[in-house]
């Protein structure tokens, strides 16, 4: 049995965690666990959606795969010693240590990214660089056993790669079809390089309007 741990916290971005979950739990022989410092319900970044972490870090001490979701920078547990220690401990023995969106900042705060190239949400590139990482505009990037994805929905892409690594390409393709992941958005505005300044500015406003939840 391959165990995947997704550590959550108040203010995490829901799709950062749920996207990878939908991919990985469909692979035969894979069990996905939502974990946190203490077991319980955690608020997503809208302040309303709740996801349960039924087990704490100590109950899943050495998962095979770690998938760290992100959220607004103000909501990330960047100074939470227990959270960062868990990342460090798991990384020592994991097959793959991965992040989605600003989850890369948590890997950086844990000290495991210095000197690497990396990606995260476009609005957090400067934050990522502060951890000694060279930010790159890629949907996802793999360096050894560390895999980082760009913002939110990119976690589906990166975890299809994880699915292929854990099983094989045929299984990953079957999972992709199972979730009917065949994006055909009505607008070509899904990256900062494609969007107009007006759209970029509005996207920042929408994001910054989300509540601060880390202390709840």
TrEMBL record:
One of its GO terms (biological process) is regulation of DNA-templated transcription. It comes from the Eukaryota. Residues 4-163 form the DJ-1/PfpI domain. Pfam families: DJ-1_PfpI (PF01965). Gene3D superfamilies: 3.40.50.880. InterPro entries: Class_I_gatase-like (IPR029062), DJ-1/PfpI (IPR002818), INH-QAR (IPR052158). This is DJ-1/PfpI domain-containing protein. It comes from Selaginella moellendorffii.
């Amino acid at each position: 049995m391959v165990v995947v741990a997704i550590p959550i916290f108040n203010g995490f971005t829901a799709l950062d965690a749920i996207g990878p979950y939908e991919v990985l739990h469909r692979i035969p022989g894979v069990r996905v666990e939502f974990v946190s410092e203490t077991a319980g319900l955690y608020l997503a970044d809208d302040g309303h959606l709740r996801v349960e972490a039924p087990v704490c870090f100590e109950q899943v001490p050495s998962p095979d795969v770690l998938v760290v979701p992100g959220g607004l920078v103000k909501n990330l547990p960047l100074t939470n010693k227990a959270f960062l220690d868990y990342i460090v401990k798991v990384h020592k023995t994991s097959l793959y240590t991965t992040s989605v969106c600003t989850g890369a900042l948590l890997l950086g705060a844990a000290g495991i990214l210095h000197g690497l190239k990396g990606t995260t949400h476009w609005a957090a590139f400067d934050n990522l660089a502060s951890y000694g990482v060279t930010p790159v505009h890629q949907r996802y990037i793999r360096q050894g056993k560390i895999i980082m994805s760009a913002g939110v929905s990119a976690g589906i892409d990166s975890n299809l790669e994880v699915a292929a690594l854990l099983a094989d390409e045929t299984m990953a393709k079957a999972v992709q079809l199972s979730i009917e992941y065949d994006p055909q958005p009505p607008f070509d505005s899904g990256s900062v390089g494609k969007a107009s300044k007006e759209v970029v500015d509005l996207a920042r406003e929408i994001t910054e309007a989300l509540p601060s939840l880390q202390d709840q």
